[in-house]
Prior knowledge:
By secondary structure, the protein is α/β, with parallel strands linked by helices. 32% of the residues lie in helices and 20% in strands. It has helices spanning 4-12, 30-35, 66-77, 99-104, 119-134, 169-184, 203-208, 224-235; strands spanning 43-44, 60-61, 89-93, 111-116, 142-146, 159-164, 193-198, 212-221, 247-255.
Amino acid sequence: MKNEAERRVAEGTRRLLPGMKVGDGYTRHPFDLEFGVRTSGLIAGRHLASGHRHDRHNTAYYGVAPSVFQAMVVRWRRSKPVAPIDGFTFVDFGAGMGRAVLLASEYPFREAVGVELHPTLARIARKNAAVWRAAGRARAPIRMVCGDAVEFRLPDGPCVAFLFNPFGAPVLRRLLKALATSFAGRPGQERQLDILYVNNEHESVLERQTGFRRLFQGEVRRSRADATADHKILANQPEGEYAVTNWEDCSIWRWGG
């Protein structure tokens, strides 16, 4: 018989999570309207219980502004990575419904992977990936993994990790230590790990983790269209607990051993 946590998760896969209903202020982002996917919605961290010990460190689900994501990739590619982009695996930790993974798959990465703890969000992300592939938009293979970011083993070869402030400092510390341990034993070019961190609320955690050096820190502005959309979406929150600006505070980090 399922325990109580498993029962709640099973029920959650059959109903909309808070923040995904019109009565919760749900508003579709133009990205979803244009491409026929489902990545909109604002889900507070307290509504993302999965039964895992890391649940209490969830922040919230909200899809990254496409213009911010694309600008970060441009900055990263200018940072002289150790290999061409097609040698890198892209991994989004806390992928949610997969917007960043979809965007990443438009580039010629070796693979675009999303790691998401909540089964409902991971299920939606897989459906989005199927729509994306069917439309011929994916240049890179897409894979969605439902599981804990700390326990996920990055594939061999150079990797670029993406974080849209998915969890609190305790989980980020555990993740960085796991990544550092994994990459410390890799040879040559396979040692390269870069991190693109959007809404870098816990920047100090990276500053204290040995082996990483910062390549960039600053504001990355949303496009006019994304800023308009995000302001409209956040204005519809019934409780108004989240704010939005015309930019995201971001950073890019590189593992150096």
